[in-house]
Write a structure and sequence with these properties.
The complex is a heterodimer of chains A (267) and B (262).
Chain A lengths: L2 H21 L1 H9 L3 H12 L10 H18 L3 H11 L2 H6 L4 H11 L1 H19 L8 H28 L6 H15 L11 H7 L9 H7 L5 H32 L6
Chain B lengths: L1 H20 L1 H28 L2 E2 L2 E2 H35 L2 H6 L4 H6 L9 H17 L5 H31 L4 H11 L12 H9 L2 H12 L5 H28 L6
Antiparallel strand pairs in B: 1-2
The chains are: A mainly alpha (267), B mainly alpha (262).
C-alpha cells in the first residue's frame, strides 16, 4: 500500500469524521463544558493576585493566561487512547486491520475532522478574552503568532502521539489505560494547565524543560501571550517536534509488535 | 429492613470477589487514587507558597477542605459512581428489565450493584490529610464539632447520591450520558477549594446550581468550630430534600420507562 493511495483516502475519512462530530454535537458540547478547570483556576488565581502580582502575573495577566490555556486545550484535546482501548477490547479493531490503511490514519482524521466544530466553539471565547484582556497581554508581532500556530498543531500532535503509544500498549496489556491516567496526572501538574509554570521553584521549572508536558500546553500559550522570547520559542518548537517524532516512532513500533502477537482480546 | 441489609451484604460480597479476581488492577487502581490525591495538593501548595491567606482561609484550614474533598471523592468513586454508571449501560442495552423484575426496590438494587473498593483508599488518605491539618492548627475539635461534621458529611453524601440519581434518570430520556458523568466530575473538582474563593457569578453557579459549598466547605467549617447551628440544620435539611426529590424523579422515570427502544 503506497503512501499516495493512503493519502487519497484522507478526504473521505475527513468527511466521515466531520459528519460524526456533527451527529454527536450534544455530546460534544457537554465534553467542552467539562473542560472547565482553567476557568476555576482563573477565578482562584485572580483572588490570589488581588493584592499584588504573583510571579509577574497580575489579575488581568492570569485572566489572559487561563483563557489562552482553555483555548489551546479545546483545540488540542484528543480521545484516541479511549477509542483504541474500546476497539481492542470489543474486537472492533479487526475492522481497522482489514482496511488497506494504517489505523493511525483513521484515528488521526477522526480527531482532526472534529476540529472545525471545536474551533467554532473556542473562537467566541478567544474574542471575549481579547476584549477583556485588551491587547496588553498578548504577543503583538507576527513571528510569535506564526510560531504559535505551529505550536498548537505540535501540541495536538504530541498529545495524539502519546495516546497512540499508550493505545498500542493495549494490545499487550489490559490495564494500559492506567498508564494514560498517569500521563494525565503529570500533564495536569507539569504542562501549565493548573498554574503558570513560572510559579514553580527554579529547579522544578528547569525540570519541566526536559519533560514532554510543557510542549503540549504551556509552550503554545506562552508564545501567543508573548511571554517567551523569539529564539526561546524556536528552540521550544524544535524540542516539541522532536518529542512528536520520537513518540510517534515508539507508537508505530509498539503497534507493529502488538498486532503481530494479537489474536483477539484475551487470546 | 433485615432483608435489605442481607441484600446489601450479598452485593458487597460480589464486589469484593470481583476486586479479588483482578488483583493487579485493584492494586494499580488504588495506587492511582493515591496519585490523584497527591496531584490535587500541588496547586494548593503553590498558591499558599505565595500567600498566607486566601479569601479568609489559612493554609491548614484550606487543607481541611481538601481532606473532606478527598474523603467524599472516595465515597463518590467507590460507592456511587460505579453502580450508577452501570445503570446507564443497562438502560441502553435493555438489561435494566431484569433488575425491575426482581422482587426488591429497583433503586436500592441499582444503587448497590457495584462498589469499587480500591477507591476507599481515598477516604483513608483524606483522614490522614485531616490529621495533618488539625495538628498544624493545633486544636482538638470538640465533641459537638465532630458531631456536626459527621452530620454534614452524611448530608454531603446524600447530595452527591441525589445528583447522581438525577443524572441516571436523564439516561431514560437522552441515551448517552457517559459524558454527563465527566462533566459532573470536572465540576466536583472545584470543591477542593473553600467556597469563599468563588465570588460573583462563580459563587452563584457553584453554591446554588451545584451545591459545592455544602459538600466540602461546610463540613470543614464544622470541624473548625465555625459553623452555626441554624446554617448546619438548613444544610442538612436541604440534603434530605435533595434525596426526596431524587426518589420522586426516579419513581416517575421508572413508571414511564418502556425498555430499550421503547
Amino acid at each position: 500500500m503506497s503512501a499516495a493511495r493512503q493519502l487519497r483516502a484522507v478526504p473521505t475519512l475527513f468527511r466521515v469524521g466531520f459528519a460524526e462530530a456533527v451527529a454527536y454535537r450534544g455530546e460534544f458540547f457537554i465534553w467542552i463544558l467539562s473542560t472547565n478547570m482553567p476557568l476555576v483556576m482563573l477565578v482562584l488565581f485572580r483572588e490570589v493576585a488581588r493584592e499584588a502580582p504573583v510571579a509577574g502575573f497580575d489579575e488581568k495577566g492570569f485572566g489572559a493566561y487561563f483563557l489562552a490555556t482553555l483555548i489551546v486545550r479545546l483545540m488540542t484535546g484528543s480521545w484516541a487512547v479511549w477509542e483504541m482501548n474500546a476497539d481492542i477490547r470489543s474486537g472492533g479493531i479487526a475492522m481497522h486491520l482489514l482496511r488497506p490503511l494504517h489505523p493511525f490514519v483513521h484515528y488521526a482524521t477522526d480527531n482532526l475532522a472534529a476540529l472545525p466544530i471545536r474551533a467554532l466553539l473556542a473562537f467566541p471565547i478567544a474574542l471575549l478574552a481579547f476584549a477583556w484582556v485588551g491587547g496588553g497581554h498578548v504577543a503583538t508581532d507576527a513571528a510569535h503568532w506564526c510560531i504559535g500556530l505551529f505550536a498548537i498543531f505540535g501540541a495536538w500532535a504530541l498529545t495524539f502521539a502519546a495516546m497512540l503509544a499508550v493505545g498500542s500498549l493495549g494490545l499487550f496489556w489490559e490495564s494500559s489505560l492506567s498508564l494514560y491516567d498517569l500521563w494525565l496526572g503529570l500533564f495536569f501538574i507539569f504542562s501549565g494547565y493548573l498554574m503558570p509554570l513560572s510559579l514553580f521553584p527554579g529547579w522544578l521549572l528547569g525540570a519541566t524543560w526536559w519533560m514532554p508536558f510543557r510542549y503540549t500546553l504551556a509552550f503554545p500559550v506562552e508564545t501567543m501571550l508573548g511571554l517567551e522570547s523569539l529564539d526561546q520559542s524556536l528552540r521550544s518548537l524544535a524540542a516539541q517536534w522532536a518529542w512528536v517524532a520520537s513518540l510517534l516512532a515508539l507508537a508505530l513500533l509498539l503497534w507493529r509488535r502488538g498486532v503481530a502477537r494479537y489474536s483477539v482480546f484475551g487470546g | 429492613m433485615i432483608r435489605y441489609a442481607r441484600l446489601l451484604r450479598v452485593q458487597l460480597r460480589a464486589s469484593l470477589l470481583l476486586a479479588m479476581q483482578y488483583r493487579l488492577d485493584f492494586a494499580i487502581d488504588g495506587l492511582m487514587s493515591l496519585f490523584w490525591t497527591a496531584t490535587a495538593l500541588v496547586p494548593l501548595l503553590v498558591v499558599f507558597g505565595q500567600r498566607t491567606q486566601i479569601a479568609g482561609w489559612s493554609w491548614p484550614e484550606a487543607l481541611v477542605v481538601v481532606a473532606w474533598f478527598t474523603c467524599l471523592k472516595g465515597i463518590l468513586d467507590g460507592a456511587i459512581r460505579p453502580s450508577l454508571g452501570n445503570v446507564v449501560e443497562a438502560i441502553r442495552k435493555g438489561t435494566l428489565d431484569f433488575v425491575l423484575l426482581k422482587p426488591a426496590d429497583a433503586q436500592f438494587l441499582v444503587s448497590t450493584a457495584r462498589f469499587d473498593l480500591f477507591a476507599f483508599v481515598n477516604v483513608a488518605g483524606g483522614l490522614a490529610i485531616l490529621a495533618v491539618a488539625l495538628r498544624k492548627i493545633g486544636r482538638v475539635p470538640s465533641a459537638g464539632a465532630v458531631a456536626w461534621t459527621v452530620l454534614l458529611l452524611a448530608g454531603a453524601s446524600f447530595i452527591l447520591y441525589a445528583i447522581w440519581i438525577l443524572v441516571v434518570c436523564m439516561a431514560f430520556v437522552v441515551v448517552k450520558v457517559d459524558n454527563l458523568s465527566y462533566l459532573f466530575a470536572s465540576i466536583y473538582d472545584a470543591a477542593r477549594w473553600p467556597s469563599s474563593v468563588f465570588r460573583g457569578v462563580a459563587s452563584i453557579v457553584f453554591t446554588f446550581v451545584i451545591p459545592l459549598a455544602l459538600m466540602t466547605t461546610y463540613p470543614a467549617l464544622a470541624i473548625l468550630g465555625k459553623m452555626d447551628a441554624a446554617r448546619g440544620v438548613t444544610a442538612f435539611a436541604g440534603s434530605l430534600v435533595a434525596l426526596g426529590v431524587a426518589r420522586v424523579v426516579w419513581l416517575r422515570s421508572i413508571a414511564r420507562y418502556t425498555s430499550a427502544g421503547g
